[in-house]
TrEMBL record:
Coiled-coil stretches noted in the UniProt entry, renumbered to this chain: none
Subcellular location: Cell inner membrane
Organism listed in the record: freshwater metagenome
InterPro entries: GspF/PilC (IPR003004), T2SS_GspF/T4SS_PilC_CS (IPR001992), T2SS_GspF_dom (IPR018076), T2SS_GspF_sf (IPR042094)
Descriptive protein name: Unannotated protein
Length: 403
């Protein structure tokens, strides 16, 4: 059970400090109130062996739930500090709880919600803080929080769709490799002594499989080194900053995956920028924050060029059209939004357009890839079976001739 340290005020007004065990921060608060102690500060106590190399990030799903709950409390007229206390007491996510405790302290010391959020980049994306700041200035905090929660929910759904589309072929590919490894590394070697004893002339497919079997049995260090090298390259591409640019360029060269990634990035761009413009964030600031939030170096480089043209007075629609990233329908939407002053609405429409196209491309990808992978695995298994059967027939044939 976690242990919490606290600072509280007793019935006489004196400050009391101590520690209390509880499953959640809310349980500790309730226990202190039962002892006639009014908690001023409660923090989770960490042991001597518990340390963090870096601040633990708050999951997007937890942030979405937090934003939606806070929107409800603000709309109901509950003070933000009380709302944060209630949400912090109920949340089971440790990283989010620490963030809420820190924000509550900042608010009680006279800070604003956006300033308090800005101190926790592990929880709040850059665009989130910019939208919060504009909402505070316009007095539309409840509606803005609700819009942010909706955006985070759609972002999670989009990410889930993309990951689902990309994970399926990887799983099938791994299964195919495992199947070949088992057949070549375990099944085929069982027949190898028989073939050697009979000194039979083996067909080419069988000799090829025996070579693979030797690789997985007697020269196992070669495939091990190969898989370690592949794992290291994958880690460098997907988990390090240095590998991000090559990975982004590589993925955009794969025909089918290219379309999925393009529409996922464009949907995110339109969704974030539309939310910021709707919240009252100045377009140059919103554009800068949105470009920084684009999770693709290739798109980011072109959008930065468009941003520079905008700052020089080149308008909005034309610089984006010149990037070559957006289809004709989106270009027209941007132009109409710029000319009629409904840019936030047009960006939202564009994001919905990209979302539908993304879903369509994902379905097309999975529909086309499933039979391809089934045929691929079938060919591999069939090749192994043919190699074994043809070898057995060859051995039987030679045995009959010798008799």
């Amino acid at each position: 059970m976690p242990k919490f340290t606290y600072a509280a005020i007793d019935a006489s007004g004196a400050t009391v400090e101590g520690s209390e065990k509880g499953d959640t921060l809310g349980d500790v608060r309730a226990a202190l109130l039962a002892q006639n102690l009014y908690p001023v500060k409660i923090e989770e106590k960490r042991g001597a062996l518990q340390f963090e190399i870096s601040q633990e990030k708050v999951k997007k799903k937890e942030l979405m739930h937090f934003t939606r709950q806070l929107a409800v409390f603000v709309k109901a007229g509950i003070p933000i500090t009380e709302a944060l206390d209630i949400i912090g007491d109920e949340t089971a996510d440790v990283a989010l709880r620490r963030t809420i405790v820190g924000m509550t302290e900042d608010l009680r010391n006279g800070g604003t919600l956006s300033d308090a959020a800005r101190k926790h980049p592990e929880a709040f994306p850059t665009y989130y803080m910019g939208i919060l700041q504009s909402a505070e200035l316009t007095g539309q905090l409840d509606q803005t929080l609700d819009n942010l929660a909706g955006y985070l929910e759609r972002e999670l759904e989009t990410k889930s769709k993309v990951m689902s589309a990309l994970s399926y072929p990887m799983v099938v590919m791994v299964l195919a490799v495992v199947t070949v490894a088992v057949l070549a590394g375990y099944v085929l070697p069982q027949f190898k002594p028989l073939f050697e004893e009979l000194d039979a002339e083996l067909p080419l497919p069988t000799r090829m499989l025996l070579g693979v079997a030797t690789l997985f049995s007697e020269l196992i260090y070669i495939p091990v080194l190969f898989f370690v090298a592949v794992g290291a390259v994958m880690f460098w591409l997907f988990k390090t900053k240095g590998g991000k640019a090559p990975k982004d360029k590589l993925l955009l060269k794969i025909p089918i995956i290219k379309g999925i990634i393009e529409y996922a990035v464009l949907e995110r761009f339109c969704r974030i920028l539309g939310a910021m413009v709707k919240a009252g964030v100045p377009l140059p600031d919103g554009m800068k924050t949105t470009v920084d939030s684009v999770d693709n170096t290739v798109f980011e480089a072109r959008l930065v060029e468009a941003q520079e043209v905008m700052l020089e007075g080149g308008g909005f629609a034309r610089p984006l059209a010149d990037t070559g990233l957006f289809p004709g329908a989106a270009k027209q939407m941007f132009k109409v939004g710029e000319e009629t002053g409904t840019l936030d609405e047009q960006l939202e429409v564009a994001s919905l357009y990209f979302d539908r196209e993304l879903e369509s491309r994902i379905k097309k990808f999975t529909t086309m890839f499933e039979p391809i992978m089934i045929v691929f695995v079938g060919v591999i298994v069939g090749f192994v079976a043919m190699a074994l059967v043809s070898a057995m027939y060859g051995v039987l044939g030679e045995t009959k001739n010798q008799m």
